[in-house]
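hi! just following up on the protien thing from before. the input was this:
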Amino acid sequence: MNEGPSRSVLFDRAPSFSFEFFPPKTPEGAQALLATIVTLQEFHPSFVSVTYGAGGGSRELTRALVRDIQQRGIPTVPHLTCVGHTEEELETILAGFVNAGARAILALRGDPPRRGAYDPSRDAFRHAAELVRFIRSWEERQRLSFRLTVGVAGFAEGHPDTRNRLREMDFLKAKIDEGADYICTQLFFDNHAFFDYRSRCRLLGIDVPIIAGIMPVTSVSSLNRMAELSAGTNFPARLLKAMLRAGGDRQSIERIGVNYASQQCSELLDEEVDGIHFYTLNRSRATLEIYRNLGINASADVDRIKALNFLYKS
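and the predicted 3d structure came back as:
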């Protein structure tokens, strides 16, 4: 039988700090990612997440990366999506992740594959809440000696496919009611939107940790990529104006993006955010700069940082 809730696996300190990686497709990409992991490991992340290609295209790469990172002693959270999978396939994938050492899953609906034929009628589930229920059922049937920590996605500025924001919150509550342990938000640039989202969650009785997703802008191309990946995300005029003033200079744009994200993170920490999740794009430079701007170092005492924040606010 399962033991009790295992939030402490990922949230043994508050706030948590975590990173997202994606499986590299080339040996050069693998070497670059290894260097990034070695650098960021010095900051003792609460966990790292590993993305999963649309329709499971990177399934084997994801499992291999989970195994490699887990062997370094870092709690690793693979993504798992509904799209493009039968129940039998999902069971196989879950078993593979657990055998690779994972003790947590990020359960997502996922996006349809961009290439090749896709038949949605083959999908076992249409919504992430159904996937969470399936994961809980699977771990019970497997009689695991531990309880998987299950995370789900949140959208501080609203899900692009749901116009009714009240209904959207009902969908989120359903995921929690099915057994999700925490929420990790899509990237955002407007902290007011996040704070409002967190308040609406608490009003609905959603009391699990809500992790803020942050991705610093490092180039114009990365900005366009963000807009593509996170439909519906608001890019504040203040950020866009600063980038225009940079006149296309790459170093200036990267500095603007890092400074903006640093200010975001500082305000989030001051307002007692449960955690910050950095979308790294498999690179460490921008994240390291943010850490330095926040005064966080490899031996950071999180309790001391929280005490200082309280002192400053007093």
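DSSP finds eleven helices and eight strands in the chain.
Strands lie at 16-21, 47-50, 76-81, 104-108, 149-154, 182-187, 210-214, 275-279.
cheers
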